[in-house]
Automatic annotation (TrEMBL):
Protein's UniProt keywords contain rRNA-binding: no
Segments crossing the lipid bilayer: 20-36, 48-66, 86-110, 122-141, 179-200, 207-228, 248-270, 336-356, 363-382, 388-410, 422-445
One Pfam family this sequence matches: DUF3100
InterPro entries the record matches: DUF3100 (IPR021450)
Species per Swiss-Prot/TrEMBL record: Variovorax boronicumulans
Protein name in UniProt: DUF3100 domain-containing protein
Keyword tags: Membrane, Transmembrane, Transmembrane helix
Coiled-coil region list: none
Amino acid sequence: MTSAASTIAAVAPSTAAGKLKLLVVTLVLVAVAELIGPTQFSVGPGKVVLLPMLWALLMAAAWGIAHQRVPGVVRVATAQQSLAGGLLNAGLLLFVVKLGLTVGAALPQVKQAGWALLFQEFGHALGTLALGLPLALLLGIKREAVGATFSVGREGNLVIIGEKYGMASPEGRGVLAEYITGTVLGALFIAVLAGFIASLHIFDPRSLAMGAGVGSGSLMAAALGAIAAQSPPEMLPQLTAIAAASNLLTTVAGFYFTLFLSLPLCSWLYGKLEPVLGRFSKHGAQQGAAVDAGANVSSADVAHAAPTSLRDTLLAWLVVGGGVLIGNAVTYKVPVLVSLEGVLAVVAIAGAVEAIKRFVPRLPMVLVLSVVATVVGIPGLFPFSDALIALTAKLNFLAFTTPVLALAGFSVAKDLPVFRRLGWRIVVVSLTATAGTFLGATLIAEFFH
């Protein structure tokens, strides 16, 4: 197929049959991923945990890449892969609601965390771009650098980039590359890094524990294991509590830090630094132009990058909601009907804000949805708040990530040629960003000891 034909296929609208096929295949892959379940193994003093969301992402990516060899009845072709990128944007809104409800319910705990934990969050928010962005520009990476270095690229950051730029954009590819690298190599990398830093004995172990709370349970566990192995045994309960509180705060406050602080700053710094640092890349203008050319082709299939049709939005919520029901039942043993009540409550909140946005198109969807979900999730604030918290508390946070990452896997498959152009450079940048968030938070936390 020629390049022009490929582009036309990418932008061709997906038929109703194609949409149904994408729905069914995605939910089947989610079920398989949840049946595989978490897998963990030890790496020195730390542990690496591979969660169902990783299996879903890898299987979906492989399914999309090999679509020409897959039987037609279950084939997810380029048009459906483009649609998956758009569904990802809408489906992530349900994740935002769950995140906001978690934030509201956890506010009392966050209040007890103290000023040290609050200020070290600046290290988590800014450490990634302080180390990652200059390196990315020196290696010749273009706008993908913004998505890859404004944060450690966890689930909430996919939401932010998806809403602002669309997952088919260069920034979308950057954050997906960061997410994939962090998911596959992040726990191993941070375990080695944290163990090495702890062995130098230049930081208080409590500062290192705060730095370990990067907003990912698996990365926190890996880093904490490495730190605890080189700290006095009697400190383990204290270090565990500090790391958990830091991880909670990063999960809770980090979303807002990245939305209002690190992403705008990273985009602004890119505009200032790229003309200076970009010309030092040995890849030069030729590589940069190649990546940008690929980005332009991918950005052309934006027919589904930010879906506005109500039908596609409902389809996205059906995929993610169905995936949550499957994950909750298979992995967390929650009855489907019990989970369904929580899913419907989450959809109702997202639907109310979505309806308002259709009358006020310029409404910042992610921001408003986050605020609404957080406020209604504060215990006792509204007559229905406690009941809402009880309903949605039965929905495990990670159950939302598996269907979301399955859709992301299909989106990755579509953009594989651009990822190949970025190659090893994006892996190096992603791991550097992870090091930046750990070291930045540790440095700031040390100031308070």
